[in-house]
Amino acid sequence: MEHVTSYRTYWVLWVVLLLLTVIMLVTEAAGLPRLVTVGVILLAMTVKVVTIGAWYMHLRYERLSLILSVVLGTFATAGALYFLLIPDGLAMHRLAQ
Q: Can you give the C-alpha Rg of the chain in angstroms?
């Protein structure tokens, strides 16, 4: 079944993504406590990821199994990269001291 999304919907979503980006920048520049800043930025990033995945990647019309494979694959790749880069980060930290 083909789903048609209007250009208006894409423009509205683009504006929402832009506003979330501005909120993230303002939060960082506002000098708020670190925990509040990180919380707002993580929440905004999560909303942006879900919005992009659902509307621009058209995942909202797909089966749950495909959505889970994309999401879990992304987390698996991010986790692997994170753990592969930890030794280099620690080495650079030791060299800087």
A: 18
Compute the distance between CA of residue 66 and CA of residue 46 in angstroms, rounded to an integer.
19
Using one digit for the tens of pLDDT, what is the confidence trace for 54-66?
A: 888 777 778 888 8
The total number of residues shown for the chain amounts to 97
Q: Which of 55, 57, 46 is nearest to 12 (CA)?
A: 55
- Cα 22 from Cα 48, distance rounded (Å): 12
- The span from the CA of 17 to the CA of 52, in Å, is 9
Report the predicted TM-score, pTM, of the whole model to 2 decimal places: 0.68
Q: Kindly list the distances between the CA atom of residue 30 and the CA atoms of 25, 48, 56, 81, in Å, as whole numbers in the listed order.
A: 9, 21, 31, 31
Residues 21, 85, 81: CA angle, nearest 5 degrees? 65
Rounded distance between C-alpha atoms, residue 88 and residue 80, angstroms: 14
- The domain segmentation of the chain, as residue ranges, is 1-61, 62-97
